[in-house]
Amino acid sequence: MSDNWQQTLFYLIEQIPLDVRRNVKAIALNGTSSTVLLCDADGLPVEDPILYNDARGVVMMEKLKAIAPPNHTVISATSSFAKLLWLMENAPDPTQHYYFLHQADWLAFHLHGKLGVSDYHNALKLGYDVENLSYPAWLANLQLPFHLPQVLAPGCPIGPIKPAIASGLSLPRECLVCAGTTDSIAAFLASGAQTPGEAVTSLGSTLVLKLLSYTPVNDARSGIYSHRLGNLWLVGGASNTGGAVLRQFFSDGELEYLSQKIDPARESPLDYYPLPQTGDRFPINDPHLPPRLEPRPDNPVEFLHGLLESMARIEARGYQLLQQLGATVLSRVYTAGGGAKNATWTAIRGRHLQVPMVTPVNRAAAYGTALLALRSVKQ
């Protein structure tokens, strides 16, 4: 899997027009939060990566609760720290002092060549203290068998691209490689949202909410965490509901066709909790939560209406919870991800959220990541 990541990264860079590539000043990468892997001192993975939604860490929950402070962000079956604890007991040879990296960290390494560098967006669910910008004592004192990454601010320059990579990809040798971010934060940055109270919902394979707030909110019981964004905070959570569930039942063409037959002003009576498999992270943080997809009507339009309506209810419940726990009051919502193209879904969501639904400046997470890199050039 990791080999595919590297090949895809280089392939995508090669698809950039040559005249553009030759003038690239800086590069940053985003990756799915809590997608992690172990690698050796040469950067070679020692086993398959563990993906963001892999809940094998559920067996480490009691150990997690004994190590981390009560109600901490890492107390989740899918957190990076839960996967770290699992790997400590299941790695091929923990005495080798492997490097523990996130997806974006490992891919950036192939560009800059400095192993073991991350950003504080990806490192949040590893336990990194984003208020004090350091690993907390409870984590630093564990004497872990793995190297934890050095953590930099997102967009901070790490170093120039490796000469051989620059030559092979026709990039300037002075091109800087910068610390990255997570995919949902990149989508937030791309949207143009910048005022507290503005939020971005990412409708990809999962449902991710990010609300810009004056104050942070952290509540592991509900899967809520806060990312630092300058002097403000991105408060939010990620649910496993979303496009991955829809694709279990419908093709892209069917989704487009059937959505046009739904009246978004009429509320569906079907009450689902759509999940691709057992377990959710937010607004209900329960690795054992079962999907609820019954009763299923014979009419596919009614079934899709029920799914979209139920996902909109989950989104509204999420934003209500963020505000109840102290985040800035929601004022408008931008939408990113593939689901943003579905006008019917947007109308249903607007009915539930009762705030303006705004078109983002750009819906591509890659655009937000490029903005991070651009800041490093302007500094």
What report would you give on this structure?
By secondary structure, the chain is an alpha/beta fold. The protein contains 13 helices and 15 strands. The chain has helices at residues 2-15, 18-21, 61-67, 80-90, 103-112, 137-140, 163-169, 183-191, 243-249, 252-259, 300-324, 343-353, 365-378; strands at residues 26-27, 30-31, 36-39, 99-102, 117-119, 150-152, 157-160, 176-178, 181-182, 198-203, 207-213, 225-229, 232-239, 332-336, 357-358. The strands form five sheets. It has a six-stranded mixed beta sheet, with helices on both faces. A hairpin with a 2-residue loop joins strand 12 (225-229) and strand 13 (232-239). Helix 8 crosses helix 13 and helix 11 crosses helix 12. The longest helix is centred in the C-terminal third of the chain and has 25 residues, at 300-324. The chain starts with a helix and ends with a helix. The model has no long low-confidence stretch (mean pLDDT 94).
Overall number of strands = 15
Query: How far apart are the termini?
Result: 36 Å
What's the helix count? 13
Judged by helices, strands and strand pairing, the structural class is: alpha/beta
Rg computed from alpha carbons, rounded to a whole number of angstroms:
21 Å
Biggest β-sheet description: 6 strands, mixed
Strand percentage: 15-25%
Anisotropy-based shape = globular
Which ranges are low-confidence, i.e. pLDDT below 50, for 5 or more consecutive residues?
none
Q: What string gives the helices and strands in order?
A: HHEEEHHEHEHEEHEEHEEEEHHHEHEH
Largest sheet, order of strands side by side?
12-13-11-10-14-15
The whole-number mean of residue pLDDT values reads 94
Amount of helix: 25-40%
